[in-house]
Structure formats: structure tokens, C-alpha cells
Specification:
The N and C termini lie far apart (119 Å). This protein has 6 helices and 9 strands, in the order ααααββββαβαββββ. Strands 1, 2, 3, 4, 5, 6 and 9 form a 7-stranded antiparallel sheet that branches. A two-stranded antiparallel sheet has the order 7-8. By secondary structure, the chain is α+β, with helices and mostly antiparallel strands.
Length: 208
């Protein structure tokens, strides 16, 4: 009897509990209108991102082209600088064929700015867009006014022209540091600056 009792205890139990669990499992809840709308929004956003990436891959950005031009300015051929009485040095890599720089009017230029040792500290090419400036009104450093607009023995630039300028401290930022932010200054005092200028165009928004 004892052996029979042990066999009864060790015998496998029926799987009624598993069957009961399966039977009691509830069917999936029906989707509500709110959840459907949310899914539609997710799918719409995903489709928009895919479309945007496809457009970006198909159309190279203008910024990429200007960055390539920036790297080209690093290997610009050297030219013999002409120095005028103010101390400004200039030479034309390309003499433009368009109209000359207008006085007190807005123009668009590209430039790469370096220190005398060749280290670049600013460039419109890196930013991917030209700079709009007004010359002859004291809005820029004196070396750029004279070097682009002309005067004092320097001819004015013409549209399409490229010119190298060597600007002494007295025509740049002088003895004080410049471009300072939170105690860090981009340009030290008494710095000689070298600019490679490309005169892109006369700004189309000038008043006639």
C-alpha cells in the first residue's frame, strides 16, 4: 500500500490547468480610433524623413561646393604684393571683368582670412555662404575698405576678381585683441592679417 501510495504521488498530474489558462486567454483588444490616428502620424513622419533624405542625397548642398572652394584657396598661387603708402599690400590673382565695387553700396564677397603664419581664423567658404558688406562707410576694417573699394594707390576690385591682401595692424584691429567671447579672443593684438577676397557680385537688394 505504501508503494502504491508513492506511485500515486509521483504520477504526472493532468494538464487541466494549462488547458484552463489557454481557454481563459482573452482575444486581442480592438484598436481604438486614437491608436489608429497615432499609428498614422508615426507612418507619416517616417515617410517624410525618408523623402527628405532622398532629396538631400539627390541634390548636393551649395555649402559643400563652397567648402571645396575654401580648400582650393589654401593652395592659391603666391603673388608678388604691391605695397602702398598706408602699408597695405595687395595683388590680383584674377582681375574681374564685371563692374567695379560701388561706393557705399552692398556687395557679396567670399574670403579666407589668415594670420601671417598661414593659420586660418575665418572663412565664408566654411560657413557655406558669402558675406554681404558695405564699403566706404567704416563698416569694416580699414584694410578691407581700401583693399576692395580701392583708393590710395589701390585699384577697385571688379566683379569676378580675386585679390590677396596683406593688412598691417594699423589697418586691421590695432593693438587690442578682437573677436573675443567669454575671455577667449580669436585675433590677438597687433596681428597682421592676410585675406583672399573673391568679389562675387553687387548685392541685388541695393536701392536704385
Amino acid at each position: 500500500m505504501a508503494a502504491a501510495a508513492q506511485l500515486t504521488i509521483l504520477a504526472p498530474k493532468p494538464r487541466a490547468a494549462l488547458q484552463t489558462f489557454k481557454a481563459s486567454a482573452s482575444p486581442p483588444a480592438a484598436a481604438t480610433p486614437a491608436s489608429c490616428n497615432f499609428r498614422k502620424q508615426i507612418m507619416s513622419v517616417a515617410a517624410g524623413l525618408l523623402a527628405a533624405s532622398a532629396v538631400a542625397a539627390a541634390a548636393p548642398l551649395e555649402a559643400d561646393a563652397t567648402r571645396m572652394q575654401y580648400y582650393a584657396t589654401v593652395s592659391d598661387p603666391p603673388c608678388e604684393l604691391n605695397f602702398v603708402r598706408s602699408g597695405l599690400g595687395y595683388c590680383d590673382l584674377i582681375v574681374g571683368s564685371g563692374e567695379p565695387v560701388p561706393f557705399a553700396q552692398l556687395i557679396n564677397v567670399h574670403y579666407t582670412a589668415r594670420f601671417a603664419d598661414g593659420i586660418v581664423f575665418d572663412s565664408t567658404y566654411k560657413r557655406g555662404r558669402s558675406l554681404t558688406m558695405r564699403l566706404g562707410m567704416g563698416k569694416v576694417i580699414k584694410g578691407l575698405d581700401q583693399g576692395i573699394l580701392g583708393g590710395g594707390g589701390v585699384p577697385p576690385m571688379q566683379v569676378g576678381g580675386k585679390r590677396k591682401l596683406q593688412i598691417p595692424p594699423n589697418l586691421a584691429y590695432g593693438p587690442e585683441p578682437a573677436g573675443c567671447f567669454s575671455g577667449d579672443c580669436n585675433i590677438p593684438g597687433n596681428a597682421t592679417l592676410v585675406y583672399d577676397i573673391k568679389f562675387v557680385e553687387v548685392y541685388s537688394g541695393n536701392r536704385k
